[in-house]
Task: structure prediction
Amino acid sequence: MENAVDALKIAFAVFVFVIALSMTMYMFTMTLETSDTVLQSSDITEFMDYIEISDMAEDERIVGLETIIPTLYKYYKENYTVIFRNADGTPLELYKTQTNVDLWSTGYTNQYYNNNKDVRICSFDVDEETRRHEPWTGNTNYYKQNLDRFLSGGTFLAPSGNGMDYDYSDRRINGWGDCSFIEQYKNSRFRESLGEYTYNAVNTENNTDGTTSGLTNVEGRKKRVIIYTLIN
Result:
């Protein structure tokens, strides 16, 4: 009789333990889902709808690489955009991205070229590079290393070792030929224009049926932009 009672006690204890374990796992799962949702909603780079550049300053100046290079080394620290253009206003190709266009973040498009999935790049922008999953993003040391190689014509080796390397002296990577950016444009002059980007940040909300819906922020966000137009 006592054995039967002990067996029932053990069975009941196991039952309670299973219920407690199930509840704990359920709560962990819900916490993780909530955390992911909050993080995604707080990331303004997840969904961006860029609007045309506006508010261009009237005071422009003619500059050379002695001005452009220090500006480039601050774009990832101060989070502004640097765009390069040819004399006719078309994009000046700086390099071709080696990332997989099919893996670009949702909503991202290459706004400077007619083809939204164009791999040619004419700008330096932390948000855009992050959404393309460039190998140097996420670490200030990698941003600097990439700029060093870009300017000098060296090779940026992907930190992950996945082979997504950028040889900036190779015409298959850059847009001018088998030399460095500095060598190509050391005697060139550019027109520097200052302005702002205006864009709408859109977050997502998870619905009860498993779908998502977009929520557009009422107030647009602004971002500084510096445009260098090639003169000669």
